[in-house]
Amino acid sequence: MYTERASRLTGAVVWTKTPAGAGARGVLPDGCMDLLWSEGRLLVAGPDTRAYVPEGPDRIWAGIRFFPGTAPALLGVPALELRDLRVESADLWPAARVRRLLDRIEAAADPAAALEDIALDLAARAADPDPLLRRLVERLDEGRPVSATAAELGIAVRTLHRRCLSAFGYGPKTLARILRLQRALKLARSGLPYAETAIRAGYADQPHLAREVRELAGRPLGELLGGG
């Protein structure tokens, strides 16, 4: 079973997942990075460009999902280095620091809440989030073209691409595709017909939507929505 709630850290989401007996389910690309805890392990989930299917038996997980583009400044690692990866925190931070964090999480009644507190501590020590990145996410999530968005933000497309690699792990065009996928899933889950979902989310037509869902999510839209 999966549950989530808004975090006290702006734009972040705190979540937990417990085994539901249905096997591992793919995690869809969403433009985000997560700090994860699972049964004594502390990991960082990098930005995905395709559906990620966990290996091994289903486990208890807790996490905090950061607003797109904000995690690298908090975690101290460029997003590009973690793209499509789940990395042990001990490979990123000193072992003593990781041990202290794990002790803090495992002593807490709620591991997810402990992760949230850790994220808030990280944010308190980091520089303020780059407002340009948030505006970029907002514009692309509205369906604006990358070139027009770069012009609105007063930044060259090549410069924007470099900054996106560090903040998101991929360029602005890939980010736009992933945000469009998430818009489409939200619309389709509301009961909107697929053809109308495609147009409103920014696809050329329903077949275009179907191709993008298969490429990014690895499954047909109907299977995603049906939970199969």
UniProtKB/TrEMBL annotation:
> One GO molecular function term?
sequence-specific DNA binding
The positions making up the signal sequence are none
Checking PROSITE patterns in the record gives: HTH_ARAC_FAMILY_2 (PS01124)
Q: Which SMART domains match?
A: HTH_ARAC (SM00342)
Per UniProt, which keywords does this protein have? DNA-binding, Transcription, Transcription regulation
Pfam families cross-referenced by the UniProt entry? DUF6597, HTH_18
Chain ranges of the HTH araC/xylS-type domain = 130-227
Q: What is this protein called?
A: Helix-turn-helix domain-containing protein
